[in-house]
């Protein structure tokens, strides 16, 4: 048996992470792989509870430092309860967002706390994905898609175009700094075109 893979999808809000992670999971399942499709923030019962605490929409609720601790606690629970057990059982794990989102979002909002993010990751998480798809695209189009989406599954669309542009550059920098695991995907295409490029990594 091949080593079970931990695969993540990253990118700005509206770039198609949820769409493409579902499609890739469906494809791998159709090929007979046992796949756990999960997401952050959340992905385990405890982490989903912490998600509700963090994503209050009230910027005064937590200090930036406390918010990073909550994201780390949530990720630790996700790792312990969902990701590690699935990998140990030989399953493929696909996560819609993971640690790169914290790196990029905290780097964009509080660049001075980036060392804290990295130190906590080393101390409490330690795991990096085997493969990360970073979906890169025009922020204006991504914002339109995000606003058009009905489910409200993600709060990040509230931040506006300038912030999306900053995040985009954060994800691009991260992709270039981690070429061993990051694949840059052009999201300015139809879902079918994007899925068929990603399908080559099955
Ligand atoms: P994310 O999870 O990155 O925020 P989603 O997968 O939820 O993005 O996609 C945002 C919205 O755009 C959804 O309504 C989705 O159906 C739509 N969408 C996703 N990919 C594409 C695409 N390649 N072209 C046009 N619309 C898309
Ligand atoms: Mg999503």
Automatic annotation (TrEMBL):
<protein>
    <recommendedName>
        <fullName>Thymidylate kinase</fullName>
        <ecNumber>2.7.4.9</ecNumber>
    </recommendedName>
</protein>
<dbReference type="GO" id="GO:0005829">
    <property type="term" value="C:cytosol"/>
</dbReference>
<feature type="domain" description="Thymidylate kinase-like">
    <location>
        <begin position="9"/>
        <end position="198"/>
    </location>
</feature>
<keyword id="KW-0545">Nucleotide biosynthesis</keyword>
<comment type="similarity">
    <text>Belongs to the thymidylate kinase family.</text>
</comment>
<dbReference type="Pfam" id="PF02223">
    <property type="entry name" value="Thymidylate_kin"/>
</dbReference>
<keyword id="KW-0418">Kinase</keyword>
<dbReference type="InterPro" id="IPR018095">
    <property type="entry name" value="Thymidylate_kin_CS"/>
</dbReference>
<dbReference type="GO" id="GO:0006233">
    <property type="term" value="P:dTDP biosynthetic process"/>
</dbReference>
<dbReference type="InterPro" id="IPR039430">
    <property type="entry name" value="Thymidylate_kin-like_dom"/>
</dbReference>
<keyword id="KW-0067">ATP-binding</keyword>
<dbReference type="InterPro" id="IPR027417">
    <property type="entry name" value="P-loop_NTPase"/>
</dbReference>
<dbReference type="GO" id="GO:0006227">
    <property type="term" value="P:dUDP biosynthetic process"/>
</dbReference>
<feature type="binding site">
    <location>
        <begin position="11"/>
        <end position="18"/>
    </location>
    <ligand>
        <name>ATP</name>
    </ligand>
</feature>
<keyword id="KW-0547">Nucleotide-binding</keyword>
<dbReference type="GO" id="GO:0005524">
    <property type="term" value="F:ATP binding"/>
</dbReference>
<dbReference type="InterPro" id="IPR018094">
    <property type="entry name" value="Thymidylate_kinase"/>
</dbReference>
<keyword id="KW-0808">Transferase</keyword>
<dbReference type="GO" id="GO:0004798">
    <property type="term" value="F:dTMP kinase activity"/>
</dbReference>
<comment type="function">
    <text>Phosphorylation of dTMP to form dTDP in both de novo and salvage pathways of dTTP synthesis.</text>
</comment>
<dbReference type="GO" id="GO:0006235">
    <property type="term" value="P:dTTP biosynthetic process"/>
</dbReference>
